[in-house]
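User: Here's a structure from my thesis project, written as structure tokens. My advisor, Dr. K., wants to see whether a designed sequence matches the one we expressed. Can you design one independently, without my sequence as a hint?
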């Protein structure tokens, strides 16, 4: 199965960010070992961002990077670590998945068990859509 692994990232404490990267990478590895194809934007972007001019908190930039992977996934897995349900990025990933009928599952970070998330009624804020559309328009 083609999985997009969502998880919170930005935090004021660098140690929390590093911990989140490790947790996301471990979860991705677990599902890959089970035969799934996993894209973990936290794992992928964290290390690449260190070699870019773009700031890690540039939500618009990362939204544009992640959008095609969210909408083409067979499932979005949300790693339920601290901050997952208040993360702006996770919220966008979940609502985007629902908008494209991609099933969403919550992943227990202690044992990787899945539970399906029913649509929580979140709405993609208009600025996210506008930002994505403006950045993909070729003049």
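Assistant: Designed independently from the structure alone:
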């Amino acid at each position: 199965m083609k999985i997009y692994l969502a998880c919170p990232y930005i935090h004021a404490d660098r140690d929390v960010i590093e911990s989140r990267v490790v947790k996301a990478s471990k979860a991705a590895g677990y599902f890959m070992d089970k035969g799934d194809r996993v894209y973990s934007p936290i794992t992928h972007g964290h290390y690449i961002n260190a070699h870019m001019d773009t700031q890690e908190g540039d939500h618009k930039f990362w939204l544009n990077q992640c959008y095609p992977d969210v909408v083409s996934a067979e499932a979005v897995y949300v790693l339920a670590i601290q901050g997952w349900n208040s993360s702006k990025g996770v919220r966008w990933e979940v609502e985007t998945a629902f908008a494209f009928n991609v099933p969403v599952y919550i992943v227990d970070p202690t044992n990787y068990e899945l539970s399906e998330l029913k649509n929580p009624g979140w709405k993609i804020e208009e600025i996210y859509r506008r930002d994505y559309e403006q950045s993909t328009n070729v003049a």
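When you compare it with your expressed construct, this may help: Residues 126-132, 134-139 have pLDDT under 50 and may be disordered.
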